[in-house]
Amino acid sequence: MTPREALAGVAAVPGAAKPDPHLVVDAVRRDFGGMRAVDVEHLEVQRGVITGLIGPNGAGKTTLFNVLTGFDRADSGHWAFDGRNASGLPAHRLARRGMVRTFQLTRVLSRLTVLENMKLAAVGQRGERFGPALLRPLWSAQEARVERHADELLTRFRLAAKRDDYAGYLSGGQRKLLEMARALMVDPALVLLDEPMAGVNPALRQDLLGHITDLRDAGRTVLFVEHDMDVVMTISDWVVCMAEGRIIAEGPPAAVAGNRAVIDAYLGSRHDEPEFREGR
Amino acid sequence: MDLMVILSDAGRGALGPVAAIYALAAVGLNIHFGYTGLLNFGHVAFMLVGAYGVAVTVAVYDGPLWLGALVGLIGAGLLALLLGLPTLRLRADYLAIATIAAGEVLRIVFNAGFAQPVTGGVYGLQQFAGAFYAVNPIPSGSYGLGPLSFTQRDVWVMLVGWGAVALAALGLFLLVHSPWGRVLRAIREDEEAVRSLGKNVYGYKIQSLVLGGLIGAAGGILLAVDAQSVTPNTFNPVVTFYLYTLLILGGAGTVLGPVLGSVLFWFLLSFADSALRQAIGAGYVSPQVIEPADVGALRFALVGLGLVLLLVFRPEGILGNRAEMRLEAGAAGTPRRPRRRPPNQVSGRIKEEAGQ
Ligand SMILES: Nc1ncnc2c1ncn2[C@@H]1O[C@H](COP(=O)(O)OP(=O)(O)O)[C@@H](O)[C@H]1O
Ligand SMILES: [Mg+2]
């Protein structure tokens, strides 16, 4: 039974237990002043599938990502990644354990070339330690391997022609591509994508969609935030909806699309304006 | 007014021990500011610790000179940890505040009466580098071309000083072209992104601060040895700002930027100084307009003007990369000078353009 088929028997209720959860979140809260931005009682993310996270603007999706990946602290609660506690761990440790995120507002490293952006992300590089860094023979073979892998990914993401340009000169859509390709250099088991399609033109959107399904087909778990319902409904195996910090519905795409609470949450707020702030 | 004298004064400034000392210290600052993006506004504190490490060990405790240098370096390493451990997890401005304060606090404490038995207070310490000059292999005499000449003592300091600069620049070259250097440059751009890729940003920033601090201390050690004297007021905050000036002049974030910057800075400063004195001496400028005593201040005004002009026309510094600079300023668009394009793509691009 594939991970996707396993979801068939899961009840479409918030907090539903999954047959093979990759990420398990318990009682996670995050308050900003008097406002509770995240208030997740229980959430399980099934391994090896694409889970879409939807919800109107300000629902707390980015804040939840930030908390789970160690970029923000939770006021309470705990969560486990791959069966091991992940709460309170620094972001870089979680990334090394295989939980890698991208940002709603892309964070390419402008004054590094596209290739350098990619090579930076490879894990376990000997030359990244101070001593060996001084002696090229100690790391040049590994560097060549990293570069080959980076070039493969750049070709796959159609960025090969830009490889030696500064990343700061890429267009918005290319930056999204680079960020996703770069995350892959870490070889993550779980990828959290925060609005990977925002501000991307329709042609590139198709590319990005393909890359997201490729991630799943390569056996990775994907949790992604998206506003465009059509996109979410086409590629997600499972959809979770947040509103005002809480999980208000989850289930297979069709079930969530027809869910009363979800429709109310969207109608009750305007969600179409673009966001200009990266929630932290 | 003798142009030869002016030029040889300028040449002496550009190549002399002081230029080497500033170049060395600026290599350290370049690691902080140019490569890692750390705002260290108290680099002079590392120089002070290096200089006093030598002076106190030798002059007060009768230790050997090499031990003094070691004490200076260890002290600078500890200072870097003291400044970095609490602040480098926080926003960039905390390090800036801590470093600028540390420089002033050290200067004031070393000046204070209660510290006098160890630091010599305002009088400082003198004549502790005899061992260095005792091993001078340069035969006595005068070296140079015409009026541009150095004593054997100067030549010895310059040899060691520029040797140290070359060594530091070589080390930095190797480091910035390694994956380690790539992480530092990435942190300069956006540390959150680097963290998201599994790098321990805090650890790298500490390493950068310690390494740059050690090189700054080496500059301080050289300063003490060259002058055979240290006083706290040598290490006032303006030294840090000269270092920033020459670093930006040469090109921050380039390996040779601080070296070229220091040579140019001291060339210009000595040139302005000598030219003004000559002009007053020859009667071109009336002493009522500029007194010889004002020259010291006025030369800085002239050099400042020159720097302003340079930065208007070449904001990235002499060795800096303009395409990179425009990104820093937040400008987008297509690069006018893309870097390191592989040959096959260059030809591909030309063909494309020719075909249109
Ligand atoms: N750093 C912050 N300080 C204060 N409030 C914040 C901060 N980050 C997010 N918020 C608030 O938390 C709520 C959730 O924001 P966010 O997680 O960005 O929502 P989403 O990504 O679902 O659109 C919003 O009301 C937002 O204004
Ligand atoms: Mg968001």
Automatic annotation (TrEMBL), chain A:
Domain ABC transporter: 23-269
GO cellular component: plasma membrane
GO molecular function: ATP binding; ATP hydrolysis activity
Highest taxon of the lineage: Bacteria
Alphabetical keyword list: ATP-binding, Nucleotide-binding, Transport
Pfam families: ABC_tran, BCA_ABC_TP_C
Protein's name in the database: ABC transporter ATP-binding protein
Lineage: Bacteria, Bacillati, Actinomycetota, Actinomycetes, Pseudonocardiales
From TrEMBL, chain B:
Pfam families: BPD_transp_2
Name of the featured protein: Branched-chain amino acid ABC transporter permease
Membrane topology summary: Multi-pass membrane protein
Keyword check for Aminoacyl-tRNA synthetase: no
InterPro entries per the UniProt record, alphabetical: ABC_transp_permease, LivM-like
Residues annotated as transmembrane: 12-31, 38-59, 65-85, 92-110, 155-176, 209-229, 241-269
Domain of life: Bacteria
Entry keywords, A to Z: Cell membrane, Membrane, Transmembrane, Transmembrane helix
Location of the protein in the cell: Cell membrane
GO CC terms, sorted: plasma membrane
Primary location: membrane
Residues covered by region (Disordered): 329-356
Recorded GO MF terms: branched-chain amino acid transmembrane transporter activity
